[in-house]
Amino acid sequence: MSARIVKPGAIGQPFSRVDGRLKVTGKATFAAEYKVENVAHGALVFSQIARGKIKNIETSAARNAPGVILVLTHENAPEMKKTPVFGSDSEEMGAASSSILYLNTDEVYFNGQPVAVVVAETLEQAEHAATLVAVEYEEKQAKLILQAEKPDAVLPEHIPGEPSDLKQGDAEGALAEALYKVDNIYTTPPFNHNAIELHATLAEWSEDEKSLTVYDSTQYVIGVQEMLAKKFSLRKENVRVIGSFVGGGFGGKGNAWAHVSLTVAAAKVVKRPVKLVLSREGVHLSVGGRTPTEQRVALAANDVGKLTALIHTGFTQTTEHNNFAEQFTFPARHLYKSENIWLRQEMVHLDIVPNTFMRAPGESPGTFALESAIDELAHEMGIDPIELRARNEPDRDPVKDLPFSMRNIKEAYRVGAEMFGWSKRHAAPRTMRDGRFLIGCGVATAFYPAYQFPAAARVEIHADGTAIAQSAMHEMGMGSATAQAQNLADELGLSFEQVRFEYGDSNFPYAPVAGGSNSTISVGAAVKAACDDAKKKIHGLVGEDDASPLKGTRFDEVEFREGGIYRRDDATKGETFHAILRRFEEDKIEGEGEAAPGAESEKYSMGSYGALFCEVRVDEETGEVRVSRFLGVYDCGKIINPKTASSQWRGGITMGIGMALTEEALFDVRKGRIVNPSLAEYHLPVNLDVPNIEIHFLDIPDPLTPMGAHGVGEIGITGVAAAVANAVFNATGKRIRDLPITLDKLL
Amino acid sequence: MRAYLPDYELRVPKDLEEALAFLANEPGMWKPFAGGTDLMVLLEAGKLEHTKFFSVWNLAELRGIEVTDESVTLGALTTYTEVRRNSILQEEFPMLCVAARETGGIAIQNRGTIGGNIVNASPAADSPPALLAYDAELELLSSKGARKIPYKDFHTGYKQMKLRDDELLTGIRLPRTTKSLRHYYRKVGTRKAQAISKVCFAGVAKIEDESVADVRIALGSVAPIVLRCEKTEAVLRGKSVDERTISAARAALINEIAPIDDIRSTAKYRLRVAANLLEDFLKTVRDGELN
Ligand SMILES: Cc1cc2nc3c(=O)[nH]c(=O)nc-3n(C[C@H](O)[C@H](O)[C@H](O)COP(=O)(O)OP(=O)(O)OC[C@H]3O[C@@H](n4cnc5c(N)ncnc54)[C@H](O)[C@@H]3O)c2cc1C
User: Fold this and answer.
1) What's the ipTM?
2) Is pTM beyond 0.80 here?
3) Is residue B198 helix, strand or coil?
4) Nearest CA in chain B to A126
5) CA B125 to centroid of ligand 1, rounded, Å
6) In Å, how far are A10, A34, A270 from A576, measured between CA atoms?
7) CA of A620 to nearest chain B CA: how many angstroms apart?
8) Residue B229: CB within 6 Å of ligand 1?
9) Domain B60-175 adopts which CATH fold?
10) Residues A125, A126, A130, CA angle at the centre, nearest 5°?
11) pLDDT digit string (tens) for A341-357?
12) Each residue's pLDDT tens digit, A44-72
């Protein structure tokens, strides 16, 4: 066998994002930026009351305002059929954010509900006329406060696929008898995604009104396509949804919110393309965020620090029209071994904007409570919090009783402790100081399940030796398109520069919602399947061709590398795609593939993990908390691209710092209206609030997943708020169980 | 909801005289438009009281930093960036430079002006506490003539001030009496930048023979106006900075300010932090650590 140089593959290399240059040069086209001829502009009118009926809607002033083409209300809107709500029906994956029939009803279900659309020649005219629409309501008593409605809380049938009440043994009994225990209530406020790109929809109907093209800032082009096809009674193939670039979604663009179908309806009525971009306030009013939570975590331990009881229960809020249970007890199902476990989640129904997925729904607030409680128990027992976690590390999944496909939390903590200098931390609170600053360090575990959903892809290998793959996947800044290009290059044996990945178009093969951090492996597996198909086709050509040095080979006797196909046992025997396609007078070879999680995945508990280390400085006079150091050590399988993955984690940690210290959507409890719907008053962290975040990853592949990889998106925010709260406790001796940790809570 | 642009007028006068004529000819109808960093926010929110504006951006008379032996005079249009870069201000009026550095972000600092900050009259503005502690004097001009007014007498109530409808603010004069003073400035917000202050503290003092020879204290976000705290100063003047003086000063300050609860903070927090910062200020100037 002759010697040959094996080039390292693209997977594992820190390529810069393929869309990076387009974005920084302004060439990436976002939904609102598509150039469409003769476009009219839409603006929404939002309800001022939380619950009631529209008695009268006066539109004449608006209709007579300059430039106005249409004022669409429930009195003149075309019928839009009811379609499944996202996550509500396991048979049919819907995309609607709620079952409210916007503008096909006079009922008002929340403050901020769109009750009219104004269409005008310019955006300014539309927004102006929207202020002239006068609505008279018949107001009803609204339910607006979680705490007040707790007596009427309901137990959801399930919280995404898991039981909402789960008991193993007698946790309350064990708690009552325990030597060591902590039992506290943790609360988190409502949060909003605040993606930098405002939600935008641009809708264009064909002249015969049989087909529709929609440019939408969405995390789910196929979902929007299906929803619109049903709402407007169109054939699915005749609805095309394009969302090539999305300026952040974080779950806020996973559902189709009211404006999407209302824009389409308006375009239908005015017989012109209509563009509707929500204002920042409009996003806060009509796009839901994360539910607040009230969580109880009780832990009991024996004298050697083994958990004898783990209780995690509590409440979230939702609406009758979307029923979304945020699964905050998920981390407690997988992180610790305990003799007795009780997990229970109840929901309170309110008259509010439907809450939705946001940055690790469930795991973000859940890890805040659970990982704070573990820290409290460690303090109570005088055990190092890393050691306490190690003592309760399960060898099988505690509630599923399944082996883990991969789990290296202990190793992550070991590496992290060394990098961070954890041994130098003083365990006793208020014992580290630098001038007027109290210094504290805390740890917490990050956790997110590894999800794979069905997906499809197609690939083309071109005669010039390049290839493209396509899937209706999304790129919201996560680096997905870059990672899939790396995957494609390695599958076909091409260089990274020779391949391109296309996405964000419902004309491409099916891809799931960009949520649950599933894209990398869901689409990765589909790309692999499509490549296998193409490779078999190529081999099918040459394997029986007298002119080919590969004649007579079986598929398992060849390999694909350096732009061609070669015998495994004789690297000199082979030929390039270019040569093959030319000989057969083809300009391309196509492959198609689909993939879904294998049966094996049912037999394992699959999760991603991280060990988080945080140092804070707290100003004793003002209560100002500054995160001065942060380290995340991640156990997320094989890392496809260290650069983009690290950016995901840094972003997640930044969001976690916001969740811990500054973010909170404030509501007027009498009216149910948000009072800080702007980036000036809804405080996301700014650059100065974020230290240089250190990232390390173990890079240990998961034997069960495509490429050995896991998604790396949502895990980034999990555990962060707890790591900060634990560090604040270590600094100040004050345990804050009520997010955000604002300055006043520390004085 | 955003205002409807065609309802508004923005004119560019060719010189100062024409600018003053806008104000004189239709009293109360016209407002100057400087950097626009407050006005544009109001426009976006549909909360502008006026519809007629004239830009003062090009008026050379309102620009520049003039230095004499006695004083430094900032043109009303002096931007935060210009403040930050000025070496005399850095040396003699460092709190103003810190305030400028902590105001907004780079874009706001390039465009926002000290004059706009004063006339916008937010009780949470960040430069006014420093200006008050430096005994600033304002220069006002109308077609009838010029006048001067001590800055501490300028604000009279929430968004109320001694500026006549026909007047422009042209300059801010800072007496150069600060060389022997110690300066202490703190802005406290939810986050490290781009947050409206919960409390803003500016103080200068001179300690001679272990007692307070001179002290000037001003706070933002603790009253309907940015407040010069003369009663607290009186408690301190001539005293040595010991525990008794500190607690007397804390008590005086708590009486002198009148913070409120709002979405940014609570009255209780503001009282507590104002007093804590006063204490830190006094200990810092006593012990000689400068910030
Ligand atoms: C994102 C952002 C962040 C900000 N951060 C801060 C901050 O940290 N701290 C802070 O204090 N402020 C902050 N501001 C507020 C604002 O930037 C400042 O108040 C700024 O100094 C205003 O100056 P301007 O020239 O832009 O005023 P403009 O908006 O042009 O005018 C403000 C008011 O002053 C009047 N006016 C202006 N010049 C004159 C004059 N020469 N004579 C008479 N009247 C005049 C105008 O008529 C108007 O009523 C921020 C604003 C934004 C948008």
Assistant:
1) 0.94
2) yes
3) coil
4) B4
5) 9
6) 19, 39, 54
7) 9
8) no
9) 3.30.465
10) 115
11) 999 999 999 999 999 99
12) 999 999 999 999 999 999 999 999 999 99
